[in-house]
Specification:
19% strand, 4-stranded parallel sheet, single chain, alpha/beta, 124 residues, Rossmann fold, globular, 4 helices, 4 strands
């Protein structure tokens, strides 16, 4: 049996500010270069205000042969966007690809490593 081809899509809100959108591109590059990363495909998308959209990123993953797509809201806190809007957008595009499994993860939220980052930033 062939190994499933897994894809990860990072999703942020999107912004009219170029630098804000470029940060997600940098996070995507960091993931691709991380030896612990076990995804075959890694893409980024924006919920609104900028391209690529969630639909465009999902379609790009499918075009690259993804069998499974994991969508991660790159948000700190759970809210309407991570709990409703993004899952609904993903379900909508996934209807066109019933052969592809998908799920939407929890947002970044509370994690011990977040405290490390806060303290590192605060102490510099």
């Amino acid at each position: 049996m062939d190994k499933k081809k897994r894809a990860l899509i990072l999703v942020d809100h999107g912004s009219v500010v170029k630098e804000a959108n470029e940060m997600l591109i940098e996070v995507t590059k960091m993931l691709k270069n991380n030896i612990k990363c076990n995804f075959d495909i890694i893409c980024y998308s924006h919920m609104e205000l900028a391209d690529p959209t969630i639909s465009e990123a999902f379609e790009a993953c499918v075009a690259q042969g993804a069998d499974e797509i994991i969508v991660h809201p790159y948000f700190l806190s759970p809210g309407r966007h991570s709990k409703q809007d993004i899952p609904n957008m993903v379900k909508e595009v996934a209807r066109n690809h019933p052969e592809v499994s998908f799920r939407v993860t929890e947002p970044l939220g509370l994690h011990d490593k977040m405290i490390e980052v806060v303290l590192e930033r605060a102490n510099n």
